[in-house]
Amino acid sequence: MNTIYILMGVSGVGKTTLGKMLAEELCLSFYDADEYHSDANKKKMNAGLPLNDYDRESWLQSLSVAIRNWSNSNGAVLACSALKEKYRRKLISSPSVNVEWIYLYENFETIAKRIKLRKSHFFDPTLLKSQFETLEVPGYGIHIKVEDTPENSLKKIMKKINKPRIGLIGLGVMGKSLALNIAGKGYPVSVYNRQEGDKEKDIAKSFASSHDKDFRIPAYDDLKKFILELESPRNILIMVKAGSAVDAVIKNILPYLEEGDVILDGGNSHFKDTERRIAELQKKGLEYIGIGISGGEEGALKGPSIMPGGSEKAYKRIKPVLEAIAAKDKNGNACCSYIGTGSSGHYIKMVHNGIEYGEMQLIAEFYYFMRFYQKRSPEEISDIFSEWNVSEESYLLEITSHILKRKENEEYFIDKILDVAGQKGTGGWTTNSALELGVALDTITASVMARNISGLKLQKEKASELYGEWNTGLVDMSEKDLFAAYKSASIINHSIGFELLRMASKEYQWKLELSEIARIWTNGCIIRSSFMEELVEILGSKNEGHLLLSSDVIDHLNKRKKQFTTTISKSLEAGCPMPVSSAALNYFLNFIRGNSSANIIQAQRDYFGAHTYERTDKPRGEFFHTNWDN
């Protein structure tokens, strides 16, 4: 349900004037309750006769129906006297309607003077006394004394209802969807998009005009005017491509900003760029918040997962908007939470995308195996994925199932898509960060490299001719065994991603709450699943170590250990590439071994480089060197 703002009070207090201004500020439709009076009521009031409760009955009923309809739509602003408590109760006949009452008041003498100056209105000024006698001041809602100009009264209202205005720069797919999401939640938003020849001409104005039936969204192609018409302190959301484009936008808006303004970067910026920008802008008295946003176009419009990091003080100012537009978890709480200081928000989004890379590649591998090594049709595989998803509730499994059923001219559409996978960099950034922190990232790194090798299309086609197809024929493997392997690899991929977050939190002193991060990933984002729901509980049980040491995860993997190893080994033996699945298995086998081959590595390093080693028969921390030639 969307909010209905009702400005109430006696006639002449400014309900209509302020109501129209508030509606424009909130990008909502305005309605005047006077227009819902019957002609008979209007004639009676114009003749100086006060309305009785019988006169008001049909009027209140009509308004009540309208209020329910507005609430089910986008919300609205209504100017209505609503002088008595019983009238107000009749207006709000449904408890599910969310109403913000705004009581406007002034003394009798001031209002009487205003009414005498009004023209072309059916209300007889002599009725004002009866209205003051009828008025029952509400003990709730926002109370505003309209002793100042309408503009200043509006500012007081906006401050009370905590509706920060957002200025959004960049109307790409995500920018447009977020702007509509913000407007749809009743928050005022204005938009700007650069003018760049015919390709990017009048984008902002065209966007606003195409939605003007639902929202009032001020649109600009003049950057200076866009910035200066935002109320201070400003909140500016940048939705442009990561990298130099973000820096260019910041450089262009800086001359018009003032101390206390907040810049929000909702793109996939590299976390080190975010750290640099925070430091640079703090020197100028400006706040910079890096916001990870996941959910794609649909999520941005209907409710994404939101990961803000930076100044907590600045976040609190914009928190109502972000929580309003975010997806909701199973308990109805927003899938948005303050991540931590610095660039933590963008770092979390980067790792989210790394896990996403791994999950996408896993599904692709099992599709490929069933398609070409078991000769199943895309539709059969779609049905299998749907069956798996009954328990998994994985967004990626769900959409892959839909993809595989799509046909064009009776041919499977998947076969018309070139097998070269692109990437925007976040997967590679995750791998680089893991290398810097010394964290093993087998599955995510393997998924990045799988995309890289897919780009070698011409070489791969040539190699296929030279080596021939390495395919041993149909592989007899049950769907149950395949699912066990998929599930195991997926659990390990998640564990690897959360381990990177745990180590990054220590390194950068972010104090990340991993359970809360899992919670905001349970809806809205691309990697949402039933297992993510489980991770909220697992990570919340004071588990401060590696996820693979958690009893719940151990139970998961022990049940499927034999199927996991057998399935992956048979797949590889048959000639099917399984980069992420096999990386998960290798990581797992390495992790569960009490000892490893690393002693040979240490001996080699000491032999050629005198790098020293520790001994099994000596305390940890003591290092030794051997003269291997003697």
UniProtKB/TrEMBL annotation:
It catalyses: D-gluconate + ATP = 6-phospho-D-gluconate + ADP + H(+); 6-phospho-D-gluconate + NADP(+) = D-ribulose 5-phosphate + CO2 + NADPH. It is an enzyme of class 1 (oxidoreductase). Keywords: ATP-binding, Gluconate utilization, Kinase, NADP, Nucleotide-binding, Oxidoreductase, Pentose shunt, Transferase. One of its GO terms (molecular function) is gluconokinase activity. Its EC number is 1.1.1.44. Residues 345-629 form the 6-phosphogluconate dehydrogenase C-terminal domain. CDD domains: GntK. Pfam families: 6PGD, NAD_binding_2, SKI. Pathway: Carbohydrate acid metabolism; Carbohydrate degradation; pentose phosphate pathway; D-ribulose 5-phosphate from D-glucose 6-phosphate (oxidative stage): step 3/3. GO terms for biological process: D-gluconate metabolic process; pentose-phosphate shunt. Catalyzes the oxidative decarboxylation of 6-phosphogluconate to ribulose 5-phosphate and CO(2), with concomitant reduction of NADP to NADPH. NCBIfam families: gnd, PRK09287.1, therm_gnt_kin. This is 6-phosphogluconate dehydrogenase, decarboxylating. The lineage of its organism: Bacteria, Pseudomonadati, Bacteroidota, Flavobacteriia, Flavobacteriales.
